[in-house]
Amino acid sequence: MKNKKKNRFSKIIRFLMTALTSLLIVLILIIILMVSRIQGTARVVNYAGLVRGKTQRIIKLEDAGMPQDDMIADVKGYIKGLRFGSEELDLVSLDDKAFQAKMEELDAYFDTLKQEIDLVRQVGYENTNIIQKSETFFSLCDVATDLAESYSQRIATRLKQFETLTVIDIVILVFMILYELLKVLRYAKANRELKSKIYLDEATGLPNKNKCEEILTLEAEQNMAICVFDLNNLRIINNQQGHERGDLYINSFAKSLRKGVDENQFVGRCGGDEFIAIFKNVKKEDVIRNLENIKRICAKCPEMPLSYAAGFAYSNDFSKLTMRELFCQADKNMYIDKNQAKIKEAKQKRNLILNVIQQLKEKGFNFSDCIYCNAKTDTYFTLRASYSFFLAEDGSYSGAVEQILNELFEEDKKKEYRHVLQLHYLNKYLTKENPVLEIPYCHRIKHSELKGKIIAVYLDGDEKNHLHHFVLGFKIYYDTIETDEKKTIDAVL
Length: 493
Description:
It contains 13 helices and ten strands.
């Protein structure tokens, strides 16, 4: 709905811009014509005054006995030009009825004045009405000049009005153009941001898979290396501690990786828990130095311990490889490192299991089902499990508590024992001084009654003597099946 309104508004703006541009063109043409007309009007005013002045001279010279036929012809031509326009004199015919009527009267009266001039030549000016008639003619000239000036003023007023309209049109157009320009700049900025987002992994701030794939389409160069990194235990962290913790794990490694690699070299996230670093103009020793930097920084990561596998391939070790082929070679080397890490982790876990089971035996416990729990990370993994054990191999301890309650406790007991199994309760009551906590349960499923107890065994604490590691063992000590038929037989007997 919002986009529709924006599109409609944009269409209205474009339509108005087109209309205003068309109007501006028309106004400019009108102004050009009016300027041309007002220029012609100015000449008309000048020539109207010239008719009066030249006629005065004619009368003076004729009264002095000096005939002026050429000047009379000039005035007659001026009057004709003022009435009908003249290319020779560059005069326009004013589109004004009052002026044209007065010029027609002036033309007729000039003929009368000519006749009086002829009479002056015959009998002398003393015996004629030349003075009175010339004064009347001069008055007609003044009126004609005033009419021409009034017409010119009206044209000037109209011209000013059209100029004002033109200025308003231009101002509105400028604002609309600025609006469109700002919109274009916003779109350009949005496109730049979108383009950067296309190549940016928002979770880590590193270039994303699109950028990595783009680089891998190029040809490999001499003195170039590609390092591939793969995080260990991300699946376990996601399962045991949740995806939010897993995202923190990824982000922490991304920061350590970017910090450990030389600033002028490329670091990107290939997707998931895989990262790459691309080195140019380096020696193999430089790559190894960067890998050592990464290892050192990851070991000091404040958020959480970071475990990863790494492998690299150096272009000078091969005759000619594309970037993609060099990447594949580095990926193979990474998996060698990853397999070694898995073997090492499996061995460490096996030794840990054997050690914990030995501790339990020394404490007098031999569970067929038990889990090893970490109170600080809220995680667990299975030490031993029978075929009927209901918990997954590893996961979140808090999640396991809910599963335990559902499997072993009646509905009316869940609230009470949920509290007992929480880490904050265990941290308070399961201590080095009180290393064992037993929680009995009795659960009926249809006609089966399952009895037993959960035994929490303290293993160690942290530097603040808070509970760190403990074992949760499950012991079934009584299991009976009572059917309605057996109850009936017992009643009969």
